[in-house]
What we know:
The structure holds 2 protein chains of 2 kinds.
Chain A: H1 3-14, E1 78-86, E2 97-102, E3 127-131, E4 137-143, E5 148-150, E6 156-158, E7 161-166, E8 175-180, H2 199-203, E9 208-209, E10 220-223, E11 226-227
Parallel strand pairs in A: 1-10, 1-11
Antiparallel strand pairs in A: 1-4, 2-3, 2-7, 5-6, 7-8, 9-10
Chain B: E1 36-44, E2 54-60, E3 84-88, E4 94-100, E5 108-115, E6 122-127, H1 138-141, E7 154-155, E8 160-162, E9 165-166
Parallel strand pairs in B: 1-8, 1-9
Antiparallel strand pairs in B: 1-4, 2-3, 2-5, 5-6, 7-8
Amino acid sequence: xxxxxxxxxxxxxxxxxxxxxxxxxxxxxxxxxxxxxxxxxxxxxxxxxxxxxxxxxxxxxxxxxxxxxxxxxxxxxxxxxxxxxxxxxxxxxxxxxxxxxxxxxxxxxxxxxxxxxxxxxxxxxxxxxxxxxxxxxxxxxxxxxxxxxxxxxxxxxxxxxxxxxxxxxxxxxxxxxxxxxxxxxxxxxxxxxxxxxxxxxxxxxxxxxxxxxxxxxxxxxxxxxxxxxxxxxxx
Amino acid sequence: xxxxxxxxxxxxxxxxxxxxxxxxxxxxxxxxxxxxxxxxxxxxxxxxxxxxxxxxxxxxxxxxxxxxxxxxxxxxxxxxxxxxxxxxxxxxxxxxxxxxxxxxxxxxxxxxxxxxxxxxxxxxxxxxxxxxxxxxxxxxxxxxxxxxxxxxxxxxxxxxxxxxxxxxxxxxxxxxxx
Lengths: 235, 178
């Protein structure tokens, strides 16, 4: 075994990510790469070891409050979603960009392709951005998204989720994922959630209801930490 | 050594268009910049069909060969070089960027592609044709020789380069492990 092959093997044993090819999720069949990934021989100065820098001034003050982006209040259950972005050693990642997008309370996206016959909400777009604070913390105020049907298979429904996009300190750490809500009855039926083989890894996508985060008389609170992969140098 | 296991990836899905793309995303530098180059191409699936719902991101060194440290990739001021670009594919699977040619011995641009049907992104690099430094580049030379060409853009005149991303097939693009 060459060192590259040994590294690949080690990585696969601890790799929490889904495979590219997961036939129960039909769209993977023609899109999953079929050739083995190449282990990149990144040097210490490789561009993938660094990440774009986003400034607080590039965001609007209401970008992290998805309930305040229109004239009126959106329909649905107001929630606070907060947590920390951590590196693989558990250290907070400050000043990194976190982006979210989601369906409204009825399970409808503001997207022309979404044909689900559920109502749009004129007071809810469902997209937000924030930059983590010195402790690596992000915080969004939003509406709990609804479940929605899709055409992957007969009677297919996605569990309620919020899409997250995170940068980190190395471009190779770039993460796009989905945060789910505890106790969703659709988990066992969803081929996207189920694409992650390891149960403990799947559970890391489920936010935790937290009464301490809940704002009295106003919004329920959820906590969800995001752990980025090791950078090439850490490996 | 890692003490925390990473949060697993999930697909970007089909509905990111109102959340992730932004007006100046593809214009890493304005197209009127005298040194701007165009890097563009199509994203194609295993049937050779265009992928109309992919999101392509690039990250690159400036002409000095260094990773940019300037803010301003979201709100461009037309002058600072922030080195990051984001472009969704159109109905024909096409993406484009206006940027500067990176410096360095073997100039290259890091590329990440997200799409419905990709449970995790694919990572690749765009190299430029005819660069004498390509042969000695450690990343490019670690790629099997018969697949190396998939990482080299096609020159289309002085300031335009074409780079197609193929998820599968005989000319499948080389993708790197994260």
